[in-house]
Amino acid sequence: MKLNHLNLTVTDVSSARNFLEKYFGLTCGASRGNGFAVMFDDDGFVLTLMRGSEVHYPNTFHIGFPQESKEKVDKINQRLKEDGFNVPPPQQLHGYTFYVEAPGGITIEVLCQ
């Protein structure tokens, strides 16, 4: 069985969409202003973003974007820092990883196993 899609509630659909496009290569297939967006990755996974006035995910909730190498993790980390995001340097934990709070209220993990 294959997971087909995931819906996330975010406070700002447009900002979250732009972030996911810029740093993780998702593409937007359709959107309705700042209320809804359908995004796709290269493997056909569908991520929908829906606007909510408040976002309350559990502290440990996040979505992950695995990378092929530590160098790619470092590159994304550096791009985020240069663009003003408060990101810690990657650490070797369960993989070479770091977390970033994306626009809209979702936490993203970038890692290499």
Average pLDDT: 95
CATH classification class: Alpha Beta
| CATH architectural type | Roll
Largest sheet composition: 4 strands, mixed
- Please state the overall shape, judged from the principal axes of the Cα atoms: globular
CATH T-level fold name: 2,3-Dihydroxybiphenyl 1,2-Dioxygenase, domain 1
The tally of domains stands at: 1
Secondary-structure blueprint of this entry?
Elements: E1 5-10, H1 13-24, E2 27-32, E3 36-40, E4 46-51, E5 63-66, H2 70-82, E6 91-92, E7 96-102, E8 106-112
Parallel strand pairs: 1-4, 5-8
Antiparallel strand pairs: 2-3, 3-4, 6-7, 7-8
Provide a compact summary of the structure.
The chain has one domain (5-53, 60-112): 2,3-Dihydroxybiphenyl 1,2-Dioxygenase, domain 1 (Roll). Helix content is 22%, strand content 38%. The protein has two helices and eight strands; from the N terminus they run βαββββαβββ.
Description:
This protein is an alpha/beta fold. The protein has a single domain, classed as 2,3-Dihydroxybiphenyl 1,2-Dioxygenase, domain 1 (Roll). The protein is built from 2 helices and 8 strands. The chain has helices spanning 13-24, 70-82; strands at 5-10, 27-32, 36-40, 46-51, 63-66, 91-92, 96-102, 106-112. Strand 7 and strand 8 (106-112) form a beta hairpin. 20% of the residues are buried.
